[in-house]
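Input structure tokens:
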């Protein structure tokens, strides 16, 4: 089957910032058949998220969205004061009304050849710095050094007892869904957080890694035949490989981060750049 368009990706649009909103307003596909993968942290309020996704859906043939932690915040200034699972469910309903694919919908297949799987997994505090053996010790270090994710005050896990309990439930559900997909098709896994710990090794503040994923997904890129893993959250856009699989960090980030960079930000091409015909070669993790 001939290619009918490309698949691009981006994350961490944070459109509450005027410069980031202008960036989204200026985004255009290369062709009317192009898809866009959005790997979370579009914004913090429902109105902002809805504006951005509606704008992008009006330009791309298909938009696939995996939520970040910021969409799940319940900030006091947001008129929509839903928390936890109820907030996530409302985000899914909003995306469906906009014809945007979510982790709760059937995974779309690009060009009849690649399953695009948006994931919602959260984190469970298992990405701890060296020498830190527990969540309690990791949080103590974070508060002592002042490096604390705002999730601790704004991301409620209701009705789950904790964010890590919600994470484990999501991992179980998602693992089952991925295991039932057509095994003949490779995947592109789209998650806000990296599926392996290694990308967090370059963080300026290692204690922040505990809010960046879970060890439970460490082998998913191999187990589910990923052509690529698309993620954001770290605000460190780059391409790396683990077990031969490309990991694409595609975040825009805050204006203070992306504006000083020598090259202007752009969408990252995922397919056909990483097509099934060009399988990745193994490399050391």
């Amino acid at each position: 089957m001939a290619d009918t368009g490309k698949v691009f990706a981006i994350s961490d649009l944070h459109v509450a910032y005027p410069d980031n909103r202008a960036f989204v307003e200026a985004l255009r596909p290369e062709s009317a058949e192009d898809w866009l993968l959005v790997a979370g942290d579009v914004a913090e309020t429902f109105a902002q998220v809805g504006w951005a996704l509606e704008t992008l859906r009006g330009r791309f043939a298909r938009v696939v969205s995996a939520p970040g932690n910021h969409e799940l915040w319940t900030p006091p200034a947001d008129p929509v004061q839903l928390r936890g699972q109820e907030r996530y469910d409302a985000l899914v309903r909003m995306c469906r009304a906009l014809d945007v694919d979510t982790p709760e919908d059937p995974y779309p297949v690009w060009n009849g050849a690649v399953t695009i799987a948006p994931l919602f997994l959260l984190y469970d505090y298992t990405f701890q710095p060296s020498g830190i053996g527990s969540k309690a010790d990791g949080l103590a270090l974070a508060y002592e050094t002042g490096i604390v994710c705002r999730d601790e005050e704004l991301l409620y896990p209701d009705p789950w007892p904790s964010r890590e309990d919600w994470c484990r439930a999501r991992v179980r559900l998602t693992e089952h869904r991925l295991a039932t997909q057509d095994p003949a098709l490779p995947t592109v896994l789209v998650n806000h957080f990296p599926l392996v710990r290694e990308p967090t090794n370059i963080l300026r503040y290692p204690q922040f890694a505990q809010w960046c994923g879970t060890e439970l997904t460490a082998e998913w890129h191999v187990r589910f035949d990923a052509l690529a893993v698309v993620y954001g959250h770290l605000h460190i856009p780059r391409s790396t490989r683990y077990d031969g699989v490309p990991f694409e960090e595609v975040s825009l980030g805050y204006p203070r981060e992306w504006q000083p960079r020598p090259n202007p930000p752009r969408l990252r091409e995922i397919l056909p750049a990483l097509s099934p015909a060009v399988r990745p070669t193994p490399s050391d993790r």
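The radius of gyration is 18 Å. The chain has one domain: 7-271.
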